[in-house]
Amino acid sequence: MSFDIDVVRRLGDTRVALAARVGEGATVLFGRSGVGKTSVLNMVAGLLRPDTGRIVVGGETLFGDSDWGGIDLPPERRRAGYVFQAARLFPHMRVRANLLYGAADDVELTDRTAFLGIAHLLDRWPRSLSGGEAQRVAIGRALLSNPRFLLLDEPLSSLDHARREEVMQAIEHVRDVLKLPILMVTHDPEEAERIGTQIVRM
Ligand SMILES: Nc1ncnc2c1ncn2[C@@H]1O[C@H](COP(=O)(O)OP(=O)(O)OP(=O)(O)O)[C@@H](O)[C@H]1O
């Protein structure tokens, strides 16, 4: 599945612009702070509207300005799984309820929790989880919503070395075994090198 992204959006004094066409696997958006990486993910997710351009994922137009058919699919029809820098779990729900939020059913729960190494955490509250555990639950929640692709915004940046390795392996599993297309933001060159099938510099 390819991402074909050609967007411009002005935010205050910053002009966020990206033109990239990428293929299978994981695409890493790499660039200095403030260049607009998160804004690009938000545009792909449907949370931020580009001023001009188009976003096509797997041949389906998610957004197209008036020159491209005037299309703007709402976020729920884009079917993006979005994982943020901080896990952003619902604090009033146990891990199981967090995972199943947005899931049509629980048929994949066992499989997903097994490879993410979180099966033993289902009855825990988010506040009792380590950063790495919480981030793996956030990835599980995104996967269980049956997404067509994953958006990962610096999912490792708040973690120490050991926790980073756990989450990195989970992302590699999604890329290599589930073969779900990934668009991931990082400003860590080592992470970009390891996760990225292709790297797009902004
Ligand atoms: N609502 C807003 N109003 C004005 N400027 C904004 C707004 N939202 C974002 N910006 C600016 O747009 C630019 C892009 O922000 P964005 O968060 O996309 O960058 P980034 O590359 O993800 O940065 P970082 O690596 O620090 O997370 C920044 O300069 C930011 O200050």
TrEMBL record:
SMART domains given in the database record: AAA (SM00382)
GO molecular function annotations of the record: ATP binding; ATP hydrolysis activity
Residue ranges constituting the ABC transporter domain according to the UniProt record: 2-202
InterPro entries assigned: AAA+_ATPase, ABC_transporter-like_ATP-bd, ABC_transporter-like_CS, Molybdenum_import_ModC, P-loop_NTPase
Pfam families (alphabetical): ABC_tran
Keywords for the protein's UniProt record, in alphabetical order: ATP-binding, Nucleotide-binding
Name used for this protein in its record: ATP-binding cassette domain-containing protein
Lineage: Bacteria, Pseudomonadati, Pseudomonadota, Alphaproteobacteria, Sphingomonadales
